[in-house]
Amino acid sequence: xxxxxxxxxxxxxxxxxxxxxxxxxxxxxxxxxxxxxxxxxxxxxxxxxxxxx
Amino acid sequence: xxxxxxxxxxxxxxxxxxxxxxxxxxxxxxxxxxxxxxxxxxxxxxxxxxxxxxxxxxxxxxxxxxxxxxxxxxxxxxxxxxxxxxxxxxxxxxxxxxxxxxxxxxxxxxxxxxxxxxxxxxxxxxxxxxxxxxxxxxxxxxxxxxxxxxxxxxxxxxxxxxxxxxxxxxxxxxxxxxxxxxxxxxxxxxxxxxxxxxxxxxxxxxxxxxxxxxxxxxxxxxxxxxxxxxxxxxxxxxxxxxxxxxxxxxxxxxxxxxxxxxxxxxxxxxxxxxxxxxxxxxxxxxxxxxxxxxxxxxxxxxxxxxxxxxxxxxxxxxxxxxxxxxxxxxxxxxxxxxxxxxxxxxxxxxxxxxxxxxxxxxxxxxxxxxxxxxxxxxxxxxxxxxxxxxxxxxxxxxxxxxxxxxxxxxxxxxxxxxxxxxxxxxxxxxxxxxxxxxxxxxxxxxxxxxxxxxxxxxxxxxxxxxxxxxxxxxxxxxxxxxxxxxxxxxxxxxxxxxxxxxxxxxxxxxxxxxxxxxxxxxxxxxxxxxxxxxxxxxxxxxxxxxxxxxxxxxxxxxxxxxxxxxxxxxxxxxxxxxxxxxxxxxxxxxxxxxxxxxxxxxxxxxxxxxxxxxxxxxxxxxxxxxxxxxxxxxxxxxxxxxxxxxxxxxxxxxxxxxxxxxxxxxxxxxxxxxxxxxxxxxxxxxxxxxxxxxxxxxxxxxxxxxxxxxxxxxxxxxxxxxxxxxxxxxxxxxxxxxxxxxxxxxxxxxxxxxxxxxxxxxxxxxxxxxxxxxxxxxxxxxxxxxxxxxxxxxxx
Lengths: 53, 796
Fold this sequence. Notes:
The complex is a heterodimer.
Chain A: H1 3-27, H2 36-40
Chain B: E1 25-26, E2 29-30, H1 34-45, H2 51-54, H3 75-81, E3 84-85, E4 89-95, H4 102-108, H5 111-114, E5 118-124, E6 129-135, H6 141-150, H7 162-169, H8 174-197, H9 204-225, H10 227-238, H11 245-264, H12 272-290, H13 302-305, E7 309-314, E8 317-322, E9 331-334, E10 344-348, E11 351-354, H14 356-359, E12 365-367, E13 372-373, E14 378-379, E15 384-388, H15 404-407, H16 417-440, H17 445-458, H18 462-481, E16 484-486, H19 490-496, E17 500-504, H20 505-509, E18 516-521, H21 525-535, H22 541-550, E19 558-564, E20 568-573, E21 576-581, H23 583-587, E22 597-603, E23 606-614, H24 621-625, E24 632-636, H25 644-651, E25 657-658, H26 663-675, E26 680-684, H27 690-695, E27 698-703, E28 715-718, H28 725-757, H29 764-792
Parallel strand pairs in B: 17-24, 17-26, 24-25, 26-27, 27-28
Antiparallel strand pairs in B: 1-2, 3-4, 4-6, 5-6, 7-8, 7-9, 9-15, 10-13, 10-15, 11-12, 11-14, 16-28, 18-23, 19-20, 20-21, 21-22, 22-23
Helix pairs in contact in B: 8-9, 8-12, 9-11, 9-12, 10-11, 11-12, 11-17, 12-18, 12-29, 16-17, 17-28, 18-28, 18-29, 19-28, 21-22, 28-29
């Protein structure tokens, strides 16, 4: 059962990696504005807008 | 009798307002004014008409069509406004109140199609901010603002930079602390399970290993996430206050020390998971409490109302200077729609000052040469020249800000329930802890210590600490949904304790800015057409209101038009001579008693009657009056008492209404009520109420457009929800009752836990179950109860 020492080490290491990833996202401002990107994605970016009728 | 014309309404393609004229038509698209049409032209020139595809009428109406941003060439002002600049690039953030739909978002992020010097632009929709990076060698800040203005998105540029204050305030690491606590909570829980489920005796070594890892994981929870509790408990102790943070810090500390001791001495498993769970839930509670639902500034003062710069005459030339540099004896130039920033004497021009924001009075006031004009008025009409007599900070309006009410720290003006209870709670808790220690001490030191620590652990007021934030934030979101925006959660409790409500009159119980037009004249359709044609030529607010009232008609050619400021209009239309204006101007008689503003009509020397402009009371006044037995209502007005008779119906006897009140009088009145131990709520709208709003226990600013300027206050109420005020008051009382009730629930849990704890036999498993269970109960109870209470008050 000594494998448990290794497995717990692995799981903690992985979890710390994810925590680090979260910190990075937080610090780089990814969570600052959660509303606008959701609207932006609905807008088309077309080069030439269709002629007005 | 009075003919009603049923001409079909056309709405403006750009802003959706009703078109009063047939003048502005392009490609069968109707526009209400020149401003809206010019925006459309700018957009169509740049092939950006998709703007109109995403939403109908996305634009803002453009009553003002003159742009004046000369002051943006002044380097001191530029440096105040921008975020960053180097040799090539400038970064600036604007607050644009009109951002409201996906079209706005789309258009504002296409700025570089108008001008390639704009490198980058990003909208923050909820904050209504636009962040722009541009090359200042090709495009000056002034040109950029003019571009934004041209496409209908004028940024709000003010002295008090609300944006920067907001941005700096949000920099706190609560989210990171929650992340760490949550991470540790999850891991510790997993590692504690073997212990709870039972570890076989041949695997005893694992037990020690798990314990050590648990302690290790607890370290960041105690010393990073939970550290704030120790700091604040210590600070409160030094200020001789027993706040709820003290038992919390005690609980965290005892949990940690006991866990370390138990694991290191191999005498038990410790309470690591309870500790992590406790800190995690507490921080979540804090987060919920801090969450703000609306990005509205409650801290605005006169600086955000006044312009950034003003034009002065210096050696016969006009020069914009920042307001801070404005001194007495400066000669200033004020144009149409500009605000007078300091008390000044009128030297030149016809002043017609709109004090609607200062006093709430809808009708502009005429001023004669040599008269002192108080700061805060908005000039309508032609250019005027004034000499400043008092510095900006010494003006009639702004000197209120020097009053002590504004310097007072005013976080929690009333003690919250939590603060009151936690004092006694802590004392009782310590008493029980020490008595259980003393009880076991003579015989069994170990059991005594174990009982003592167990008491502190079990009685840790986690559920108590969570009941207020969760109830209050649920209440806050319900208020928010009903267009009543509170500054923070403590305001809900303040609302529940109000005994006296003081109303301002103009703009608060009457609808600000607009008056009810009544036609006291018999006019044919043709005569209406004549009047409308004349009024269309005037920028005077009364003319505009008449125009709007008469609706859309075909304009007739107007000749010999002359407008005498403050008096009236004389013109010849279609061969008929028209005179519109005051009684003195039209009828050559002195003013009759002023009950309402009137515009008299004379066509071809025959008197036809008049238009009367009366204040319109907000809907739901009867509901407000019905509050009377429970609350004392008062009325404060800066006006004369000519509306006294109508208001008696709402406010009853004379003693409750006070007229002719200066801003200082209003503040003093609130203070005199407070000295009688009354809890006073002030509802006002203008700058003249700001002293009273600040002095009161709860100041509510009422506004018809939340993005407009409103004076600093604890809450902002949208005029549409005015009639819900009684429901808000009742609901706030419900919320406080819910907090009281959840306090008893958490006490019950504490008592159950304590009955185990005093015996000294608290098992880690019991603590690990009890703590989250009580938390979950409290959270679900408060959210469900708040929801039901809101339903009962018809707020959902």
